Amino acid sequence: MAQDTERRAPLSNGMPVLGIGTWQNEDHGQCAESVRTALDHGYRHVDTAQAYRNEEAVGRGIAESDVDREDVFLATKVWTSNLAHDDVLETTEESLDRLRTDYLDLLYVHWPANQYDPEETLSAFAELRDEGAIERIGVSNFEPRHLDEARDVLGEHPFANQVEFHPLLPQEDIQAYTQSNDVELVAYSPLARGEVFDVPEIQNVAEKHGVSEAQVSLAWVREKGATAIPKATGADHIEDNFASLDVELDDEDVEQIDSVGRRDRQVDPDFGPWN
Question: Is residue 177 pLDDT above 50, yes or no?
Answer without folding.
Answer: yes
